[in-house]
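FYI - complex with adenosine-5'-diphosphate, inputs then prediction.
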Amino acid sequence: MVTTHLPQTPEYDREPRGLQPVQDSNDSAATIKALTKENRILRKKLERAHENLRHIEDTKRNQESLLKTVISELQDSRAGLERKSNTLEATLDQLRKAQERLIETEKLSALGQLVAGVAHEINTPVGTSITLASTLADETEQFTTALNSGPLRKSQLTQYLAIAQDSAQLLLSNLQRAGNLVQNFKQVSVDQASLKQRCFELKAYSEKVFQSLSPKLHHHQWEVTGDEIVLHSYPGLLAQILTNLITNSLAHAYGPNEPGQLHLTITQRNSSEVELCYGDDGRGIAPALLNRIYEPFFTTKRNQGGTGLGLHILHNIITQHLQGQIQVQSDLGRGTHFIIQFPIPPEPTTTTIP
Ligand SMILES: Nc1ncnc2c1ncn2[C@@H]1O[C@H](COP(=O)(O)OP(=O)(O)O)[C@@H](O)[C@H]1O
Ligand SMILES: [Mg+2]
């Protein structure tokens, strides 16, 4: 029978055991040999475990230092990014301010150009009127002298009357043009504060504008069709738009006493947009002139009171005040159509009085 003491502490912590009192020396030697072998194996395992532990600790240390490096690099790049985004925000802010200044300058220069243009344009009819008035004054003086110095021939009278009539006619049209220029210029620089915003029904209001122009619409038929839409907007601006379009049709689309058809169709495009389609069936506009009609001072009736400011004003009202857009379609000999679209302004918030 072999008695071995099972190890109380791990094998690798022990020294090889001394010889135990045995009954059989052969058995003891075999046991010692087995235990020594076991001990050797355990020592090797222990060494390997130590080695593994060292390796694990090394790897852990490496990973920790790698992690630290990564964290510090990340922190650095985050700080860098923050700095960059602050710089970008500042740049964006500067850009916005520069853009605002540019828009203001543009507006001022547009107004400046317009003022200079108006002054230049007024100069011509006023200058012509001065020449005409002084010619008329000279002719009248000569005529008075002739009248005072003896009997007057009929031809002298007829000649004077013809000159007086022509001069008066030309004076009238030139002064009319100067007057129109001043009137329109006043509209361009109109103080928008005087235009009140209120609720109105678009179709009924448009009909009123047509009716108010009816003294000029003797030879024309007109019709307003389409949706009934209540808008909270600027009726004054709508009146200016329609008046401009109608007076343009009367001035440019038809000959004197020539009959014509004018129509306006109002459509609600969706819950947020209105479309006005105005048209006449007159002469139309030549394709080459179509993209010039909104230019200030562009007119094909310069000698007949045209200022070329009507459609320029109209374009400004639609694009700037109503935030909308305008398109023109025209066929020579068949008429002109203007399509105006603008967003429906939001309803004012109504407060309920308890
Ligand atoms: N309904 C129209 N039919 C034909 N031509 C038009 C019409 N409306 C505008 N035009 C052309 O556009 C030009 C510019 O119009 P506008 O700016 O109102 O100036 P004005 O009426 O003083 O000439 C007109 O001179 C005319 O040639
Ligand atoms: Mg006009």
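DSSP finds six helices and seven strands in the chain. The beta strands are 198-201, 220-226, 230-233, 260-270, 273-280, 325-331, 335-343.
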